[in-house]
Amino acid sequence: MQFVATEEEDLTLTEDSIHTAQLLNITPKEIKWTDKNTGDPKSTVILEWWWEIQAGKYAGRRVKGTCDEKFSTHPNNRLRNWASVILDREIGAGFPLDTEDLEGLTADIVIGKKVDKKDSTRVYDEVVDVLPPTGTRQDDAPPF
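Above: the chain sequence. Below: its structure as C-alpha cells.
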C-alpha cells in the first residue's frame, strides 16, 4: 500500500479557551474499582456531558465534561452549577431536574486538559466549566 501525506490543520483545543457549544446529551457511566485497603469492590456513577462546538475552526468538534451524579445546593456541585447556567436560573433545594430538558441548549464551555492515569503521554480535552452564552468567541469569525 502507498499513501501520500496531506496537510492538515492542528485542531487541538487550547487549555482555558472558551467555545460556544450545544449540549448533545448527558449519560450516566458507572465507574468500578477495588478498594486498595480492604479489597472490596467499589463503584460510583458519573454523568458524561457531550458537547458540540458550534462555530469557528472547531465547529463540529465534540468534547466531554463530567460531574458526579449527586444533585445538591452545595456551591461546588457541578451538576447544579452547570444546569443553572444552561437554564439561566437559580436552582434551589427541591428543584426537579430532568437532564433531557438541558439537551439541545447552548452555553459557552471552558476547555481543560486531562492526563490519562495509566498513560501520562495521553492528554485529553475536557470541559471544565460552563458559562452563560455570550455569542461569538475569540476563535470564531470576527463580529464585524
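Residues 18-131 form one domain.
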